[in-house]
Design brief:
Elements lengths: L1 H12 L24 E8 L4 E4 L4 E3 L7 E7 L4 H12 L8 E7 L5 H11 L6 E3 L6 E2 L9 E2 L5 E5 L4 E7 L7 H12 L2
Parallel strand pairs: 4-5, 5-6, 7-8
Antiparallel strand pairs: 1-10, 2-3, 2-6, 4-9, 9-10
Length: about 190
């Protein structure tokens, strides 16, 4: 199942519709333009994977259907990730309405590295998830199969309310900008 999902994502990446790098989108940008999403076609269903929250609970990614999901992979050693985390934190206001933020740390040390890091940043509302062994995501250079591919750090996948992976953005994005929120609203409405 996981092997099939990774192969599907790799095949979809070959059919990119709008390949634009998000590196030009800076935090705090006043732009009303939405961040550049690399759309994946054909749309594939997000895999059914259980993700561990930092508090020890687990959720199945498919249980989030009905909301636009921002699945963001990050690490404490990644400077753009450190700048993006407070922006993801401020999206908690919109959770429950139409956005579900799933911020997954890929730090190998797991909770022992992530919890104090989030505390130092003042990230208190955003509940982080953990993937210390790379079961959910790995770089394409690693010879193992995972449901998601880490093409850069941070990388955020957008999943529509029907549970389909719509695309991804690599690099730091100001998700709280008008454009960032408009992009998430667009995928919430893409029923």
């Amino acid at each position: 199942m996981i092997a099939t999902a990774r192969l599907l994502l790799a095949a979809m990446a070959a059919n990119l519709v709008g390949a634009v790098s998000a590196s030009s989108v800076k935090a705090g940008s006043e732009s009303d333009a939405p961040p550049p999403l690399i759309e994946l076609r054909p749309l594939a269903m997000a895999p059914s994977v259980k993700i561990e929250r930092i508090d020890g609970e687990h959720i199945d990614l498919r249980s989030l259907r009905g909301k636009a999901v921002l699945l963001s992979f990050w690490a404490t050693w990644c400077p753009p990730c450190r700048r993006e985390m407070p922006m993801l934190e401020s999206l908690w206001r919109f959770e429950g309405a139409y956005i579900e933020v799933v911020a997954v740390s890929v730090d190998r040390q797991g909770k022992s590295a992530v919890a104090p890091f989030l505390e130092r940043l003042g990230v208190t509302h955003l509940l982080s998830f953990l993937d210390p062994v790379g079961r959910i995501a790995a770089p394409p250079s690693e010879a193992r199969e995972t449901p998601f591919i880490l093409r850069g750090m941070p990388i955020s996948y957008v999943i529509d309310p029907r549970g389909r992976v719509a695309g991804y953005i690599t690099g730091e994005v100001d998700w709280t900008s008008q454009g960032g929120l408009a992009l998430l609203r667009h995928y919430f409405n893409a029923r």
